[in-house]
Amino acid sequence: MRLRPTARGWGLAGVGLATLGLGTGMGSTDLVRIAALALLCVGGAAAVVAWRDPARGRSRIDVERLVMPNPVHAGSVVGVDVHIRAHDVGSRTRLAGLRFAEQAATELSAGRPLKAQVSRERAHVTVSYTVEAARRGRWPIGPLVVTRSDVFGTVTTSTTLGDSAEVRVWPTIAALPTPSDVLVGEPDRVALGARSPSTDDASLRDYREGDDLRRVHWSSSARRGALMVRSDERAGMRPVSVLMDLPLRSAGALEWTISAGASMALAMLDAGHPVRMLDGTHVSAVGTPFVHARTDSARSALLDRTIDLERPRAAADAEKALIAAAHMLDSTEAGGEIVLAVLGALSVRSREALAHVVDTAQGWAMVRSDGSTAARQSDAEHTVRALRRAGWRAVMVEPGEDVVGAWTRMLGSVR
C-alpha cells in the first residue's frame, strides 16, 4: 500500500506547522489549537484510510479476472473482464469509494493507458476492456490498482487487489495448402505400405517411430515379442518433423521463422500426418513425441511449444543445437519421414549433418536470406545449392515475405 497526502493535504499540513510555530512563539493557545486541529485532520485521515485498506482485513474485496480468448494468436484482440465483489457491509462500504486502474504488459497495451468501461452495482463492480496481443510470448496483465481518498481529500492511498493473469500468445499462423501429390506421391505411399481402407483392419506390420500408439495390436505384439500396429491408411501416413533453425540477431526473422514452422506443422497435422516440432532446444529428447490427433487440443499442444522459444545466445550454440537435431533425425527409424525445415545460412558442419538426414527421409527446406550484406546473401545461396546436391528440395526466402508464397515456391522446387 502506498499512502501519500494530496496537494490539499500538503497545504493543510504546511499551514498547521506554520501556525503551530507562530502560536508557540506568540504564546497563543488558540493558534496552537488551530494548528493541532489541522495536523490532526491530516494525520487522522491517513490513519483511517490506511485502516480501511480494501486488500486486507476481514472485509477485504475479492477480484476475479477473466481473459478471453486465452491463448490467442499474435495480432488478435483479447477481451478482459475484471469482477470486483464485496461480500459484507464493511467491504461494500470500502468498494463504494474506490477508483480503479488496470495494468498490462507493453506487448498488450502498446504502452498506452487502458480505456475501460466500469459498471457499478451495490456490491459488484465490473471493469471491461480489450488489449491487442502484439507479439508471441507470455505477458502479464494486472493486478488491479485501486485508489481511495478520505472525505476531506487530504490523503490518497494506492494498493493492488487480486493476482495478475497471464496471456499466452501463439505465433501468427498462415493457412497453407497441402497437395499430397507433391509431398507424398503415390510411389512413396506404396513404399510405405499404405493402402485403401478395407473392412479387414487386422493387417499388421512392425511399429515405426511416429505411429499412433492407439494402433498397436497388443495381443499380437505380446505373441511376437515386438510392437505390431494395424496397417490401415491412417497408419501409413508419413510422420513429419518440422525443424526450425532460430536466427541470432533479427527479432523479425525469429518471429517469421517460428510462424512459418508452426504453420507448416499445423498444415501437415490437418492433412493427417503425425507431426513433431524440433527447434534445437530439446535436442536430448530422442523420443520427442509426435502429435497425431486432428483436434483443437493437438493443435494447442504444438503451438504451446512455440510460446517460449528464444533466439540462441551465440552462433556456436545455434550450430550445436542444429547438428544435434540433425543427428536425432538421422538416428530415428521413422520409415521415410518428411522433414520440413526453416534454416539460416549454414556452416560446413551443419550442412554435412543435414545431408545425412535425407538418406532415409524426404527433406524440404526454406533458407533465410536477410540480404543485409552481399556476403550473407552469398552464404544463403551456397546453403541452398549444398542442400540440393545432398538431396533436399530447397528454396531461398526473405524473412517477412508471405508464408503461403514461400511454401508454394518450396513445393514447386520439385519440378
From TrEMBL:
**Which UniProt key words apply to this protein?**
Membrane, Transmembrane, Transmembrane helix
Q: In its keyword annotation, does this UniProt entry include Transmembrane?
A: yes
Q: Which InterPro entries does the record match to this protein?
A: DUF58
Pfam families hit by this protein: DUF58
Q: Which domain of life is it from?
A: Bacteria
> What residue stretches are annotated with the DUF58 domain?
204-246
Q: What stretches pass through the bilayer?
A: 7-25, 31-51
Protein name in the entry: DUF58 domain-containing protein
